[in-house]
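Weekly structure sync, notes
Attendees: PL (lead), two postdocs, one rotation student
Agenda item 3: pending single-chain targets
PL asked that the sequence for the first pending target be pasted directly into the notes so everyone works from the same version. It is reproduced below exactly as submitted, 499 residues in total.
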Amino acid sequence: MSDAANVEVTLTVQNNTEVELGDVADGYAADQARAYRDKAGEYAADALNSKNMAEAWAESDSAPAGEGTRSSKSWSEASQQWAESSTNPDGVTGARSAKSWSETARAWAESDGEPDGVTGARSAKSWATVSSQKAAEAETSAKAADASAKASANSAAEAKNSQESATTQATLAKQSADSAAEKLAQMQIDLKLKADVDSAILTGTPAAPTPAEDAQSTQIANVAYVKEKIAELVNGSEASLDTLKELADALGNDPNFATTIMEAIGKKLDATATAQAALADGKGNNIAETYATKEELTGETGTLAAVAKSGSYTDLLDRPVIPDKTSQLTNDSRYVSTDANGNVTLTGTLTATKVYNAVYNDYAEFFPRGGDTQRGDIIALDETSNKEQYSKATSSSQCVVGVHTEDFASIIGGRTLSPGDDILKTNLPAYIPVALAGRVPVRMYGKARKGGWVIPSEMPGVGRMALEGESLTQAVGQIVKDDTAENVRLVKIIVRSGR
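Predicted structure, written out during the meeting:
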């Protein structure tokens, strides 16, 4: 070992400075000094990082160590909100600060109105006032009850006198009732011997006078009068026609007998006329030219094929085959085909007036892939590439196009599919399915407010809700439902460009 190994070296290390070695002799001491210098630099860098981390934990307005962490300053502000805030402290819906609870407690103790806005509620002070009023009312009621008791005693004495008088009156009334009952019983016996005025039922052999010729129709007619009138009506008719039923049967029960007979007579030939064959039917068709004779029909049908007589498909000699599936239609190449999974292949152009039952949410297009993405990622043009491709959007992206979706109702672009190909398995390696319109879930962090705009954050593919006054030129859509969570998650939005 040389003498240079005994050289003493003094180093002074400061943050963010390099240590300069002066005229240090070569050898082991110089190597050792350099090693000390390097190690001191590492310690200085660690110390600087520790200082920066300590400052972040102490004063940072954002998360010092990732999502969900807060600095001492943030916790201090949150503590102040929980102590003094007049609104929801720390943004917790329905929460109250210590100051708010103190004011609420005072309202329940002293308020003259409904404390804490509770309908129908009262404070302790209000209940004390009510209790005092009820006590005064009870005292007044007690005095009134005492006066009523004295009045009731007087009324009881008067009632006793009235009861004695009533007993005497009841005895007299009973005597009158007994006498009336005897008279009523006799009246009921006599009443049974009388006929009712309305629908009277007479017994025995009651007699009635014979009505005069000009008597009123409502007068009672006796038996002799009725027999006389019936004899005049029959007037010696044959026994087989001396009742109305026998006459009706003879006329065939036809209420329009005269009209029927006259119509029948009108269809008969005059006794002096000459009968002729009919030339036309009821519709005016010439019978000789319109209808064939039985002989003519028999001669024609004898030469007809069986199908002409029966009209049955099975009587055809050369029956065509009716296709039972679309693959049998081979007259040209444009027909619909399906595979075992029910996927439909249609050559040519499909034109439809309306399409129903598309149960998914959005309209999408396949964009050339520039990197790995997942459902809900915000997608933007890759501005670092020389070719057109798309990847996860960030806060610095200038051309945001939409959201990665796999629940589309309709999608355009991509590769040409063969029968049986799965559209996603075929296209996902080279294309991103991007929702351009409709409702889709998007990945975002932080609170979501209904109607708020989602813009790309510093995390690739993940969005956040735009703050008041922030630019919306790269917004991807608007939130449709409130969500108070703050972690990275899927939130449903309506895809639309910013404004």
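Discussion points:
- Residues 1-9, 15-25 have pLDDT under 50 and may be disordered.
- The first helix runs from residue 28 to 59.
Action: rotation student to compare against the earlier draft before next sync.
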